[in-house]
Amino acid sequence: MQYQLDHQGNYVFSGPVDATTILSVAEQIREARFFREATLTHPSAANDLLVAKLGLLEHEVFAAIFLDNRHAVLAFEILFTGSLTGASVYPREVVKRALQHNAAAVIFAHNHPSGVPEPSQADRDITTELQRALRLVEVRVLDHIIVGGNKTTSFAQRGLL
Q1: pTM score > 0.85 for this model?
Q2: pLDDT digits (tens, 9 = 90+) for 71-101
Q3: 121-135 vs 91-100: helix axis angle to the nearest 10?
Q4: What phi and psi, each to the nearest 5 degrees, are found at residue 134?
Q5: Second CATH level (architecture) for the domain 39-154
Q6: Which residues on adjacent β-strands are paired with residue 152?
Q7: Do the strands 140-148 and 105-111 form a parallel or antiparallel pair, or are they unpaired?
Q8: DSSP H or E stretch at residue 105
Q9: Could you give the CA distance from residue 78 to residue 64 in angstroms, rounded to a whole number?
Q10: Which is the most buried residue in 60, 81, 114, 115, by most CB within 10 A?
Q11: Among 54, 127, 115, 57, which residue's Cα sits nearest to residue 89?
Q12: CA angle, corner 142, sides to 101 and 44, nearest 5?
């Protein structure tokens, strides 16, 4: 379905619009605004995006928000997809993606399909391992946010980074 903006800033569609199209276009608009306008200077700034992207998934994924040196968003990517209870994360691949985006910083995120966003020891361990790997290429890890439904837990806010 094609749409365009009129001179008053209204979205005009070329025909009838169903709910799926409306939701899809709303997601595109939200993402365009997020990536164009977002400068993440506080851990809570990414929560809305992460809850929308990861909160309802039925399997675990590991994602990253890549940032420039002023913490403006360069990209959001789901890097690894797993099962109901876990996702394997490969630091080498994370470093490659950070370098491809020319990122100066990164915020990691993953979801807990159980809805409980409490960090496990494995979550803490992979965060430490990623920090070490990225430090070698001068990319800062600003946060690791766990999403459980519409709730989040920030490693930075808990002093775990």
Answers
A1: no
A2: 888 999 999 998 888 899 999 999 999 999 9
A3: 50
A4: -75, -30
A5: 3-Layer(aba) Sandwich (3.40)
A6: 147
A7: parallel
A8: strand 105-111
A9: 7
A10: 60
A11: 127
A12: 110
The residue extents of the domains of the chain are 1-37, 39-154
Q: How many residues does the chain have?
A: 161
CA distance 46 to 156: 12
Q: How far apart are CA 26 and CA 93, in angstroms?
A: 31
Sheet of 73-81: strands edge to edge? 73-81, 61-67, 105-111, 140-148, 151-154
Cβ 70 vs Cβ 39: under 8 Å: yes
Tokens of 147: 């999403």
DSSP for 72-120, please give it: BEEEEEEEEE--SS-----HHHHHHHHHHTT-SEEEEEEE-TTS--PPP
Write out the H or E segment, with its range, that includes residue 63. strand 61-67
Looking up tokens 């990122």 gives 103
